[in-house]
Write a structure and sequence with these properties.
alpha/beta
Length: 320
Amino acid sequence: MSRLMHVAHGAYAPPAPARELTAVSADGARLHVEVHGPENAPPVVLAHGWTCSTAFWAAQIRDLAADHRVIAYDQRGHGRSPASATCSTEALADDLEAVLAATLAPGEKAVLVGHSMGGMTLMAASTRARFREHAAAALLCSTGSSRLVAEARVVPLRAGRLRTRITKSVLGSRAPLGPVTPVARRILKYATMGPGSSPGMVEACARIVHACPRKVRHAWSVVLEMLDLDDGVRELKVPTAVVVGTADRLTPVVHARALVAALPHCVGVTELPGLGHMTPVEAPELVTSRIRELVATYTHAAQAEEAAAAAQAVEIKEGA
């Protein structure tokens, strides 16, 4: 039995950060934050999902850090961020604001990326002043805003009260996951990944998910069961792209389509045939390319607008 929180070798082994720091949230919760890449490069902020950690973004970090400043953090209770007594969507928003404050200069724009609960984090923070100050654009991967248990297809039954009740029991289980065994890999692949996922992808996800403490897993499952962030989606006014796998059993395509319909400024949806819930791991190149597109289109544009405004202000001052 290995207690590694992630794979140690290969494409999904997380690279070493350029620096690490601790962000302190509104209630005092301490969040582990990693910064990768050049300090003066355009920033990208990555928020992982339920039961995951910064290691989940290994493929994106490895690629983007060549010419971006990549900021990744562990949600409270996950990875190297200590557990907290408070688990709520408000806490998710508080934590993101704390990370933005700790890593970005005033007014600096970044592309914000969220997978699963990380996407819900962006929705929860959409009305916050610091979010609006720093968000140039957003990418939502494999996520939803409400009805998560009712729509989940982890349990192979018709939609209805019985499936919802069993799904709630499965996702909210307090049982320890135990070591990463062949049976555990098969279960995790069925529940969270597409049928074509490679053994390396499955192993990487299994190591990360099994490292999440069971009390943390259960506490956040309660939040996800009661989730209602539909208003937050309508307030997510920055340019936002959506990615989803058509074989996603945890947040099926119906969620992505609802997001697209509700977002004020949706700039594209990508439905990936046969892929599951873990799209950043299952389709690393595509997810990374979407991030790069958003940076090129919106972060660079925002910087150009700011430079033009500054130049105009100087001209006005000199003319006066």
